[in-house]
Amino acid sequence: MTSPSPLDFGDRGVSRGWSRPGRGDASLLVCGVLLVAILIHSGFFSPGAWRDFGEKFHQNFILDGRYRMLLDGLKATLSMTLFATLIGLVLGLVISVIRVAYRGGARIGLLNALANLYITVLRGTPVMVQLLIWNFSIFATARDVNTLHIAILAFGLNSGAYVAEIFRGGIEAVDPGQMEAGRSLGLSYRVTMLRIVLPQAFRNVVPMLFNEFITLLKETSVAGYIGIDDLTRAGQNIQALTLEHSQPLVMVALIYLAMVLVLTELVRRLEKWLHRSRRS
Question: Which of 193, 168, 169 has the alpha carbon at shortest distance from 91?
Fold first, then answer.
């Protein structure tokens, strides 16, 4: 398998097209203009349309407290994302250290081969297929296991494969002289890695880890395929109750968009802070 170069963080570790100054704003403006044009053409701004909108909104979200279905779904989505991220971080860090240590001459060929196999399989298959395999094959006979926990495991293992590449790129981006300096001071490989290399590598990859968190947040929308009432499934459940096909899913999309925009802004500010701290 071809070895990625340093700072090659895989296909989920970098932002795609939004990082250049002005490009994101221009794209948002074009999307906004198109959305307004579509709404005008469909008669969305007519008085009758607004009356229908209000009645449907009450039926979809207010009547019988159906908004609570969205809140419960949001809670499940955030739980899956947070715990899967923690699993991915721990697993990815361990695997990246194994791969870097092997390239540094450590005699851990079997561990390195298993790490490569894990990354190849998990990154080479769709996360939804992995989720179905975990639920309907591996845990098919374990009826006492909560499907939410199965989803967290599946998403965490999938994320770990991507995080491993992010960490590996961050570690290999650290000047090799840092490791040599630590060893020349009499520190062991493990101590040098923990106290000198990894802190610098972590600083390099923090923005990419946030991007991975955003990607994982959106990927959990397939959890409904194994019966979890996540945010997307909550919108579908409201659809089934009210037989109204637009507002529930549009509301779900707006909630996802709001979360992603907030996280994206956090990443942007974090990148600026890291850039300033490196220059100071």
Answer: 168
